[in-house]
Amino acid sequence: MARTLDNPLYYLANFERAMSWTGERYGDLLDERERAFLDCFNRLPPAARALLVRMVMRKGPLFRESKLAYDEIGDTRAAAAPLLAAGLVDERPALNLDQLFGLLVRSEIAQAFPGVDAALRKAEQLERLRPQWPQARCFDEWLPAARDRVYALRVGEVCDRLRLMFFGNLHQDWTEFVLADLGILRYEQVDISPASRGFGCREDIEVYLRLHACREQIEAGAIPADIPQQPLSNAWLEGRRQKLLFLAGQQQERAAEFAAARRIYAACRHEGARARHIRVLEKCGDHEQAHALAAAAWMQPENEAERQQLARMLPRLRRRVGLPPEAAPPAAAPEEFTLVLPRPVPFPGVELAARDHLWREDAPVHYVENTLINSLFGLLCWDAVFAAVPGAFFHPFHAAPADLHSADFLPRRAAAFDTCLSQLDSGAYRDTIRRRHREKSGLQSPFVYWEAIGDTLLEQALDCLPPEHLKLWFTRLLQDIRANRAGMPDLIRFDLRERRYEMIEVKGPGDRLQDNQLRWIAFCARHGMPVRVCHVRWLEQE
DNA sequence: ACACCAGAGG
DNA sequence: TTCACACGCTCCG
DNA sequence: GAGCGTGTGTCTCCTCTGGTGTCC
Ligand SMILES: [Mn+2]
Ligand SMILES: [Mn+2]
Fold first, then answer.
1. pLDDT digit string, tens, across residues A455-511
2. Whole-angstrom Cα distance, residue A464 to residue A460?
3. Cβ-proximal residues to A52 (8 Å cutoff; 6+ apart), any chain
4. Rounded Cα distance, A506 and A492, in Å
5. Residue A333 pLDDT level (bands cut at 50, 70, 90)
6. Chain C: bases < 7 Å from a protein Cβ
7. In the structure, how far is the CA atom of residue A133 from the C1' atom of nucleotide C4, in angstroms?
8. Which residue windows are coiled coil (predicted)?
9. Would you say the C-beta of A242 is within 7 Å of strand C?
10. Average pLDDT over every residue of A260-276
């Protein structure tokens, strides 16, 4: 209500923009239903189009006519008539009791079902009545006295498919348009060729939808039955299939269905699946197999994270199968110190307590966690991240290139990243970072945390962080963005006089270093970067 | 009477 | 649909 | 204390409102 746009039918204009964008780019891939919908939609009168878009954007698919009241549309029944005639909306849908309860308020339920205890909660009333009212009826049959109507949107799935084609995903929705218009979400504008689109063939769209349905089943706690068993030719979708298998395996593990989990993990190449497979074998008591798989993995770990996990599991598994312990390589222990502090009230968190205690005028301390280094990387490499690589950007609302987490993200932009990172050799990086910080401020980015990086922090970081270290961090990040974008220490302390820095991971009572934090600390140790772990204990106060 | 929250909105 | 912490359990030296 | 698993809070724009239930 606070913000206003000039056009009261802004949502209709946005939807029409999206439809024509999608129609232009997917002419060869649309199926009959989608084509029919677009044709039909374009022939509707404006009020009917607007009402349909309101329904598409709302929860649905069932709506009470009285709840579809819009000044800019006018009379709802008149606006709905063409939608009913075209079959886009059903005017007398059969409703089961659950659907009916979703549309009625308590007072209406009390009137319609006088026998049920009005003091019960709605869900309990539903439980009681459900056995007596198994059959579906139309709204006017349920409540003959009611003057209201119920409409059912019939084109929700078609619109979801068109939304998927437009965005290339299903987590973005049509509100992106208005949020961008209002400046609430701001996106980098990348040149998008008229041929750019998220999907290259019809089958990929169908596969995406199938995988998405499976994922929803998993999230609902169900056991997904129809995950595609064969590898997919599209690497992006194959990655999503693998992720799905991994989630299904975890689901089975949590349900203690170890045989099923074992079958799933055995066929799953997703990162981490092999380690889970070993754990499941161990939990089954199949120590020989667990050890064999772990030993084989140890010869060729898929990444550092798996190497860490294997290093913990292998000594135990060797013992289980009666092998002698192997000489363990000494784990490099990080430098540590302990603070004993009074526990502040109100309690701001252990990191802030430690920050405030360590802070000095000439050695300010910031609570940055992953935000600082990722942001500096995102600023220096802005042009490479948002380079108009074919297929990476295909609509105006990309926070990141579509292939950010694909294996060939870096190879496809090698020259651009070289150009960005080479500025760390010449000293030009400081001005580039400052300029991006100014020019791109507030734009969505997969790396830059605008709210965390103020001018003071930025200048201190540029003063005190040596470019050699920035280069090592950024290169490591580019090697594996998913794995290396997190795990950085809580605090950073800048020695303004000496132009030095130190990173400090804060650990409160009971907290321990996590795997990604250990990997980060080990990396820093290898390259002579200062990191310490600060253990905080609370001063007893009676 | 009040707190909470899901949904709607720009 | 992330990331980090809090916390409880088992096992083992 | 190490190793492991699970639960939780804070994020997803922010504000307003109608409806629910007495709390999560
Ligand atoms: Mn932290
Ligand atoms: Mn910490």
1. 999 999 999 999 999 999 999 999 999 999 999 999 999 999 999 999 999 999 999
2. 6
3. A41, A44, A83, A88, A89, A153, A155
4. 11
5. confident
6. 1-7, 12-13
7. 48
8. none
9. no
10. 97
Question: A489 alpha carbon to ligand 1 midpoint, in Å?
Answer: 6
Q: Is residue A225 part of a domain?
A: yes
A94 SS3 class:
strand
Which residue has the least CA–C1' distance to nucleotide D12? Answer: A171
Q: Do the bridges between strand A89-90 and strand A137-138 make them parallel or antiparallel, or are there none, so unpaired?
A: unpaired
Same domain (yes/no): A156, A270: no
- Provide residues 223-282 of A with CB closer than 7 Å to any strand D atom: 253-254, 279
A293 and A343: one domain? Answer: no
Ligand nearest to C-alpha A506: 2
Q: How many angstroms separate the alpha carbon of residue A486 from the centre of ligand 2?
A: 12
Instruction: Say whether pTM exceeds 0.80.
Output: yes
Say how far A67 CA is from B9 C1', in Å: 14
pLDDT at A541: 66
Beta strands in A323-411 (DSSP E): 335-341, 365-367
Whether A250 and A244 have beta carbons less than 8 Å apart is answered as: no
Name the residue with the least CA to C1' distance from nucleotide B7: A59
* pLDDT > 80? residue A331: no
Q: Is the pLDDT of residue A404 over 70?
A: yes
How distant is C1' of D7 from CA of A149, in Å? 44
Structural domain contains residue A55: yes
Burial profile A443-477: b = 16 or more Cβ within 10 angstroms, e = fewer: bbbbbbebebbeeebbebbbebbebebbbbbbebb
Using C1' positions and the CA of A279, the closest nucleotide is D4
**Segment A347-389, tens digit of pLDDT:** 999 999 999 999 999 999 999 999 999 999 999 999 999 999 9
Distance, CA A404 to ligand 1 centroid (Å)? 25
In a domain, A274, yes or no: yes
Considering the domain architecture, whether residues A474 and A418 belong to the same structural domain is answered as yes
Asked whether the bond before A346 is cis by omega within 30 degrees of 0, the reply is: yes
Q: Check pLDDT > 90 for residue A328.
A: no
Judgement on whether residues A291 and A211 belong to the same structural domain of the protein: yes
Asked if A344 and A480 sit in the same domain, the reply is yes
> Which range marks the domain in which residue A235 is found?
202-320
* Centre of ligand 2 from the C-alpha of residue A505, in Å: 5
pLDDT at A2: 58
- ipTM of this complex: 0.95
- Calculate the angstrom distance between C1' of C11 and CA of A279: 16
